[in-house]
Amino acid sequence: MAYIALTKPRVIELLLVAAIPALLQADRGHIHLSLVLLTLVGGWMGAASANSLNMVVDYDIDQVMKRTERRPLARHAITRRAALIFGLVLGVASMLWLGLLANSWLAAFFILITILFYVIVYSMILKRRTAQNVVWGGAAGCMPVFVSWAVITDNLPEGQPHNWWQAVVLFLVIFFWTPPHTWALAMRYKEDYKAAGVPMLPVVMSEEGVTRRITIYTWVTVVCTLALVPAAGWIYAIGAIGFGVWFIVMAHRLEAGVRRGIEVKPLKLFILSNNYLAGVFVALSVDAVLGLQTVSEMVSAL
């Protein structure tokens, strides 16, 4: 169980949720079941590798923070050396899996970039040095989109368009969603981060400033989801707009509560942000599986 906890299963669930719509949207109307399964397994190993190596790097601060003090390394259930070997083996296995079994060395390259970026750029450099850590470090969490898109497009027939711009849009959706999602959690555990010496935004900025930025990033996230509407059908369009309005309203409520000086519960927005992203991606997945006429096709037919 300690090794499973080392991989941060709940974080991996979110990453796989991000991978599925890309696997389906990359070739709308077709379900490449074997490639989907291979990608999810390979992606799980890659994410598990990054999370395990992250715990090796964060060994010291995890022992200080109440939120993380029960992690395997922090409670000495696993040695750092064992965790390091475990993480490295998973990383190599993930790349070989995607390259050899899923027939996409591009996806394998993206997995490598993800692991290196998360462990070195985010965990070792950004996290402890700047309040912009999750803004730029969050790019690692966006990479499952590129991994998934690469697997499907590398296995498409010759001459079929790859539409990488759609993958870029999905990447940006997760990129801009990550800061408000993480800052809401960091507001709840501000004292933990302060004790560990991690300069998360709520530690170095007033709650009013943090919630203002949460609102701005929420708006940008929703706008990014709308950029994909022309390449999807009405189900996704309704989902992106409906869930987007909900997310924006809740972000504004959090900001308004802080401005009025009343007690707020930022953890609610953290949970809502998970539900928001899941809702948008489920709408896109259903839309892609059904292979509905896209909005751009509807407009062209008028």
TrEMBL record:
First-level EC class: transferase
Pathway recorded for this protein: Porphyrin-containing compound metabolism; heme O biosynthesis; heme O from protoheme: step 1/1
UniProt cross-references to CDD domains, sorted A to Z: PT_UbiA_Cox10 (cd13957)
Main location: membrane
Reaction(s) the record says it catalyses: heme b + (2E,6E)-farnesyl diphosphate + H2O = Fe(II)-heme o + diphosphate
Compartments where located: Cell membrane
Domain of life: Bacteria
Keywords carried by this UniProt record: Cell membrane, Heme biosynthesis, Membrane, Transferase, Transmembrane, Transmembrane helix
Transmembrane segments: 36-57, 78-99, 105-126, 133-152, 164-189, 234-254, 275-295
Coiled-coil stretches noted in the UniProt entry, renumbered to this chain: none
NCBIfam families attached to this UniProt entry: cyoE_ctaB, PRK04375.1-2
Note: Carbon 2 of the heme B porphyrin ring is defined according to the Fischer nomenclature.
Similarity comment: Belongs to the UbiA prenyltransferase family. Protoheme IX farnesyltransferase subfamily.
Function in brief: Converts heme B (protoheme IX) to heme O by substitution of the vinyl group on carbon 2 of heme B porphyrin ring with a hydroxyethyl farnesyl side group.
Protein's UniProt name: Protoheme IX farnesyltransferase
